Amino acid sequence: MASAIMADAFLHLMQRGILASVCAAGLVLATTASAASKDASPASAESNNKAVKLGGATMSAARNAAPQVDWCQRFSARLASLSLETCRQSGLTPSGTLSVQGFPILHRQIPPVKSGKSTPPVRVLLLGGIHGDELTAPAIVFKWMQWMNQGAAQEFHWSVAPVVNPDGFLTNKPTRMNANGVDLNRNFPTPDWHQEAPTYWVKRTGRDPRRFPGKQPLSEPESRWVNDEIARFKPDVVISVHAPFGVLDFDGPVQPPRKFGRLVFTPVGVYPGSLGNYSGLHKKVPIITIELPNALAMPSEAESKKIWEDMLTWIQRNVSQKPVASPIRQVVAK
């Protein structure tokens, strides 16, 4: 009976694309344990049965422990600038949300170093890879994560997700959209989304499939994760990294930055369903969209550092911790 359960469970895991993660966690050893339990004591058999409860705590722990290594192998193979060791040292863990194809959205919170200040630290949500074909976006986020234990970055409380759209990023030919063909950066619930987003897509983009907003706001697990993380983490500022326009865009209630490195503030417009529109204009949470100049070629080390340092300085001077009495209301997908 236990062997049959394991066979069915393994088939399910293969279909979800996470068998490798489970094997890495050692669950395959449960097959031998189950077979041996036929001759074992009742207490031992009960213990073995608990070990193969794929829907219980053992399975949950395996999915939280194993994917970092597995996905880091995939990430480092995709990004020439990212070594396997650097990815592993980033400390990313599964957020609990899976993409359309079952990849975990990897995430890390990095609290500030205690400074003795009486004011709460500024909370920064840093996102990369919303568009899967903009490879430099996750690459530079991984680079910046290596510098978060230095200088002014230690003053802030960070929530970081380098690859929000793992399906688009890891497919053989990376795509802007997720696995459902939805542009995640047009899927956020801005006011009048049901009227404005489809109309914009049809009339302004000519039904461009790369900019399809989806059939409903927050229809995608990846955009729902971002929305949920905004509600949970309550950032004081959002940094979303894209490419390849080579500018800074900004939405929100504070003074916009003039430049980060060579990237100059150049408004690119407001779009129905965009994260900039949703966070900066609707939620009143300042958001900087960093548009790197190339989607495939990384900025130089010096320029990556300059963008980072200028960003930290701007946050220090312009973003303050919001009052606790003004929480962000979570928007539920309909």
Automatic annotation (TrEMBL):
<keyword id="KW-0732">Signal</keyword>
<keyword id="KW-0645">Protease</keyword>
<feature type="domain" description="Peptidase M14">
    <location>
        <begin position="64"/>
        <end position="334"/>
    </location>
</feature>
<keyword id="KW-0862">Zinc</keyword>
<dbReference type="GO" id="GO:0006508">
    <property type="term" value="P:proteolysis"/>
</dbReference>
<dbReference type="GO" id="GO:0005615">
    <property type="term" value="C:extracellular space"/>
</dbReference>
<dbReference type="GO" id="GO:0008270">
    <property type="term" value="F:zinc ion binding"/>
</dbReference>
<keyword id="KW-0378">Hydrolase</keyword>
<dbReference type="InterPro" id="IPR000834">
    <property type="entry name" value="Peptidase_M14"/>
</dbReference>
<feature type="signal peptide">
    <location>
        <begin position="1"/>
        <end position="35"/>
    </location>
</feature>
<dbReference type="GO" id="GO:0004181">
    <property type="term" value="F:metallocarboxypeptidase activity"/>
</dbReference>
<keyword id="KW-0121">Carboxypeptidase</keyword>
<dbReference type="Pfam" id="PF00246">
    <property type="entry name" value="Peptidase_M14"/>
</dbReference>
<keyword id="KW-0482">Metalloprotease</keyword>
<protein>
    <submittedName>
        <fullName>Zinc carboxypeptidase</fullName>
    </submittedName>
</protein>
<comment type="similarity">
    <text>Belongs to the peptidase M14 family.</text>
</comment>
